[in-house]
Design a protein that fits this description.
Two copies of one chain form a homodimer. The first copy, chain A, is of the alpha/beta class and about 350 residues long. Chain A has 14 helices and seven strands. The first copy, chain A, has a seven-stranded mixed sheet, with helices on both faces. In chain A, α2 crosses α3. The interface between A and B is medium-sized, with 35 and 35 residues.
Chain lengths: ~350, ~350
């Protein structure tokens, strides 16, 4: 047994005071804490902005303090939390479903847009336009119950592989963003996904992959109907668009589902512009961020001219609006987890 | 100073064991805990059913355990959390607003349904039917931003008084129900309001009065639009019904906003039937409850023949479905707080 060393009282007091000061400094130092919470972020300006914002809104003695109930953070999904190239993953799901369902629909061999999908003719699919996309959506997303649809999506995620990375789609989430979600929640934030993708599609993996429960997912939706089938109540999915959660639809969805203006918004494309504009325009501290996909080696490089996840107005106006442009290449040490 | 009494070691151990057993019994006894949490409920069968359900789903060693994330409880508002007689409080708001806005609309003196409202002619208002109600809604609920509407409702709540009880409407919430909301949250439940009333109407007071934050309020809604007005982004309220959160609309709203089937549902009228049916039909433990307004002295007595909050099918089928019918007269010691 080690003998307890005795300090004179005055020294003990001095030592305690010193420890207190050190603890206070540690608590005040944003970078010290961030080093633990955001290891996949490089120690650049983007990380510093995030950490200083979080420190500011959580310090109860500061002027920028925000009560926990108002710490709402909203995240786009495609291109912000996971990859969206070479096509939106939900579009890959639609194409795979058309192939899977084709044997039950011999007429698809000669009917657009199904014919083009089955032939792998992307130009043909694009030529079918919005009407064609609605038909694909109706054929693959409607006609079943919500629970059945969730099972179909879960089965697809378990088996489908990304064409370039040969990994399940839900492994292609961004490690720095998952860390950020955790970091915000550890600091009393409520984290929401506000996706242009389908509400009931994203909910299937959001809790497992991002720690975001179904009730904190907002997305595009089709109409549904309550029915009692053979004595069992179900929610039936109907082949009719209800809400497009993109562009000016995002603030509308946020107000409808959350009912308060977020204080942090993170997107990556011009489809997220209005969400950032709305979130960063209220009183008090606000933070808007955009992922800039500039790393073709580790992920994809695209912005102004991309048909998927086009980012133009956001790049033009980020500086004047005080939004942080996060570079995949230089701000992220890691893109995906191994 | 009292001198510390010393027990021989074996006695101390016996005493500690005894205390441990007593604590364990206290923790296991539902009624003992409920006595603290639900003082406005009489010690009858209804309270016992609630407490035994909550004990069952929170006991991690039991067969009926439910993880916290799935402990979703949904409550109707009108007639379940607050009084709904002699008319829905939101209807009183509409009538008061028509009076307040009348000077700016001289044409209302000769145009229905406004003419009847201004004359206090309820039969005339009723005669204007659904179309008349839509016109009243458009005139009082649309044409402003979400933030402006919230301020109008808050101002009304601060000044309007209930015709019989002469109290602000938001003081006419049921004390036993507020206790139940607290009790459920203390046991890891997430409590939601699922109201036929307006989403942005109920949100104005739900957090302050019930402890339910805006993002846990589901309700009927009108369409909205995102706009930037003089550089300020706002949500504008449009004069068009978007969603009626009543009857079969309630499960639809629940699935859209929450994305999981609740395990507890509490209503009071046949407008809540489908919500209870849906919530109590999944696997695992489920609890459905209905407030039965049978106390004309302390509140109001009405059920099968009421035009407001009619309860008929619920009363007929409660027993066979295992739903608890809560009597205001005999289950509630207190109705309102003083």
């Amino acid at each position: 047994m080690k003998q307890k060393r005795m300090y004179p009282r005055v020294l003990r007091r001095g030592r305690d005071a010193l420890i207190g000061v050190l603890l206070a400094i540690a608590a005040m130092s944003p970078i010290a804490q961030a080093a633990d919470s955001l290891p996949s972020w490089t120690d650049g300006a983007s990380k510093a902005r995030i950490v200083s914002f979080v420190q500011g809104v959580t310090d109860p003695t500061g002027k920028t303090y925000v009560p926990p109930a108002e710490r709402i953070a909203v995240f786009d999904n495609d291109g912000t939390l996971w990859t969206e190239q070479p096509m939106y993953f939900q579009l890959a799901f639609i194409f795979d479903r058309v192939h899977a369902l084709a044997p039950q629909h011999p007429e698809w061999k000669t009917t657009e847009p199904f014919k083009s999908v089955l032939a792998g003719d992307m130009a043909g699919v694009a030529a079918a336009g919005e009407h064609g996309l609605l038909e694909l959506m109706a054929a693959t997303h409607a006609g079943m119950t919500s629970e059945e649809f969730a099972r179909i999506v879960a089965d697809w995620l378990a088996t489908a592989r990304h064409p370039r990375f040969k990994r399940p789609y839900d492994e292609l989430t961004f490690a720095p963003m998952r860390e950020l979600l955790d970091y915000l929640r550890a600091n009393g934030f409520k984290t929401y996904i506000v996706s242009g993708g389908g509400l009931e599609f994203v909910r299937v993996f959001a809790e497992r992959v991002y720690g975001v429960p179904p009730e904190q997912v907002i997305g595009s939706s089709i109409k549904t109907k309550y029915e009692v089938r053979d004595g069992k109540p179900v929610i039936a999915r109907l082949p009719e668009i209800e809400f497009i959660d993109d562009k000016a639809g995002k603030p509308v969805g946020i107000q409808k589902f959350i009912g308060r203006r977020p204080i942090l918004a993170f997107g990556n494309s011009d489809g997220d512009f209005e969400m950032l504009e709305y979130s960063t325009s209220g009183p008090g501290p606000r933070l808007g961020l955009l992922v800039h996909h500039d790393d073709g080696e580790r992920e994809y490089a695209y912005d102004r001219k991309s048909s998927v996840g086009r980012l133009e107005r956001g790049l033009d106006e980020a500086a004047q609006r005080g939004w942080v442009v996060v570079s995949v290449k230089s701000d992220w040490r890691t893109v995906y987890s191994d």
